[in-house]
Amino acid sequence: MKVMVVENYKELSQKSAQMFYQSIINKRAINLGLATGGTPVGFYQELVKFLKGHDMTECIRTFNLDEYIGLSKGNPNSFYTFMNDHFYKPLNLSDDQTFIPNGKADDLEDESSQYETLIQSYGGIDLQLLGVGENGHIGFNEPGSHFEQRTHVVNLKPSTVQANARFFNSIKDVPKKAITMGIGTILDAKEIIVIANGEHKAEAIYQLVHGEKSRNWPITALKGHSNVTVILDEAAANKV
Ligand code: GLP
């Protein structure tokens, strides 16, 4: 595992976007695994800057980690809307190159297994971006998750609902369930880049770098992967 500590959020966003850009220009086709949340906002801004105006977005396919259950695509708080605003729309990416689970599917179990199959049918993920929750969750794989799991329905921990309430008008509006790629799905990515900033992420990062592999800290599953880069600001790195 490679750990890079940069000075601030701007640098973290630039560095991670640059690594994605390098991989994209080196490939004729690339499957990107993408994340939502506050952390990657700067990453998307920088990556859009790198890619805009270059005639290379056709080679990109994107697969998002997760989506809330019960929110339609058009809901301002859906992860689809987040992705559309920050990445799909600025780059004019089409529906047949951008994939995200459907949190309004009638049969959510079926939606989960179809999403898993879809990723496999395109040959798997080449490069995966990950943020991390304060409790160590990746995607929406909460503490206690099995490391072999594939895409599935999850119940969110109260602490995760609380942490994500800042994006909603009221905590009551935050969905309590989501569809997420499983840790097994994530570990199949050929390369993984983790980004984290702020002191509230320092414990999860400590567990990743120095802790034992443990289901109590889902991010420690990455210890079993051979190509992981962790990019941190100084606050997130302060226990490393
Ligand atoms: C969410 C997402 C994760 C994300 C995490 C941290 O719940 N499902 O993919 O990494 O929370 O979010 P943030 O970057 O806002 O701290």
UniProtKB/TrEMBL annotation:
<dbReference type="GO" id="GO:0005975">
    <property type="term" value="P:carbohydrate metabolic process"/>
</dbReference>
<dbReference type="GO" id="GO:0004342">
    <property type="term" value="F:glucosamine-6-phosphate deaminase activity"/>
</dbReference>
<feature type="active site" description="For ring-opening step">
    <location>
        <position position="142"/>
    </location>
</feature>
<feature type="active site" description="Proton acceptor; for enolization step">
    <location>
        <position position="66"/>
    </location>
</feature>
<comment type="function">
    <text>Catalyzes the reversible isomerization-deamination of glucosamine 6-phosphate (GlcN6P) to form fructose 6-phosphate (Fru6P) and ammonium ion.</text>
</comment>
<dbReference type="GO" id="GO:0006043">
    <property type="term" value="P:glucosamine catabolic process"/>
</dbReference>
<dbReference type="GO" id="GO:0042802">
    <property type="term" value="F:identical protein binding"/>
</dbReference>
<dbReference type="InterPro" id="IPR037171">
    <property type="entry name" value="NagB/RpiA_transferase-like"/>
</dbReference>
<dbReference type="GO" id="GO:0005737">
    <property type="term" value="C:cytoplasm"/>
</dbReference>
<feature type="active site" description="For ring-opening step">
    <location>
        <position position="135"/>
    </location>
</feature>
<dbReference type="InterPro" id="IPR004547">
    <property type="entry name" value="Glucosamine6P_isomerase"/>
</dbReference>
<dbReference type="InterPro" id="IPR018321">
    <property type="entry name" value="Glucosamine6P_isomerase_CS"/>
</dbReference>
<dbReference type="InterPro" id="IPR006148">
    <property type="entry name" value="Glc/Gal-6P_isomerase"/>
</dbReference>
<keyword id="KW-0378">Hydrolase</keyword>
<keyword id="KW-0119">Carbohydrate metabolism</keyword>
<feature type="active site" description="Proton acceptor; for ring-opening step">
    <location>
        <position position="137"/>
    </location>
</feature>
<protein>
    <recommendedName>
        <fullName>Glucosamine-6-phosphate deaminase</fullName>
        <ecNumber>3.5.99.6</ecNumber>
    </recommendedName>
</protein>
<comment type="pathway">
    <text>Amino-sugar metabolism; N-acetylneuraminate degradation; D-fructose 6-phosphate from N-acetylneuraminate: step 5/5.</text>
</comment>
<dbReference type="Pfam" id="PF01182">
    <property type="entry name" value="Glucosamine_iso"/>
</dbReference>
<feature type="domain" description="Glucosamine/galactosamine-6-phosphate isomerase">
    <location>
        <begin position="10"/>
        <end position="227"/>
    </location>
</feature>
<dbReference type="GO" id="GO:0019262">
    <property type="term" value="P:N-acetylneuraminate catabolic process"/>
</dbReference>
<dbReference type="GO" id="GO:0006046">
    <property type="term" value="P:N-acetylglucosamine catabolic process"/>
</dbReference>
<comment type="similarity">
    <text>Belongs to the glucosamine/galactosamine-6-phosphate isomerase family. NagB subfamily.</text>
</comment>
